[in-house]
Amino acid sequence: MKRMGEKDRKVRSDKKVDVKPTMSLELKDLLYHFAHLSEEPVKDAAQRLIEKAVTHELIIASIRKWFRRDYHRPNTITAGYSDRPKLKITMKGETGKVTIKFPQESYDTLCNLAHALDITPTSTAAVLIKMTLYNKDFMDEYIRFYLRHLEPRKIEAINKLLKL
């Protein structure tokens, strides 16, 4: 409750939004190993994977069958149908969370995809991490474009880790 004479606190214009997806420990370990080999913090690696995945044709094509609402991305609209079965996310064994911080614009894009899938942004983030790390073509492109600065032995280790 605000006292008389108190002013509202200012909110940073570049404030980031926390998303804490729950995933299997196997997927979490894979993400941590990938981030380590990529020489970047887990939160940054996960953020970049998700930011690229929300508009990437390969990833959208693989999750399109669960769209219950229309999904708009640059120059493309993917139709959703409300009679499609809802995406059910089940995880075997123990689970863990990863904290990812998104700029507001990236978070809004993630929310748009979550709306199309009719699931939460947190669940959508977990789905995207899984879809990216297990999609050979996406990861080949990602490594060539974003990790080209790494030594060849590191890239080879990433390929071995992801079984590319």
Explain what the structure shows:
The chain has helices at residues 25-38, 42-53, 57-63, 104-117, 121-133, 136-146, 152-161, and strands spanning 16-19, 22-24, 71-73, 76-78, 95-97, 100-103. The protein has 164 residues and is an alpha+beta fold. It has one domain. A two-stranded antiparallel sheet has the order 1-6. Helix 1 (25-38) crosses helix 2 (42-53), helix 1 runs antiparallel to helix 7 and helix 2 packs across helix 5 (121-133). The longest helix has 14 residues, at 25-38. The model has no long low-confidence stretch (mean pLDDT 88).
Summarize, please.
With 164 residues, the chain is an alpha+beta fold.
List keywords for this structure.
7 helices; 164 residues; two-stranded antiparallel ribbon; 12% strand; 49% helix; alpha+beta
Topology of this structure?
Elements (H helix, E strand, L loop, with lengths): L15 E4 L2 E3 H14 L3 H12 L3 H7 L7 E3 L2 E3 L16 E3 L2 E4 H14 L3 H13 L2 H11 L5 H10 L3
Antiparallel strand pairs: 1-6, 2-5, 3-4
Helix pairs in contact: 1-2, 1-7, 2-5, 4-5
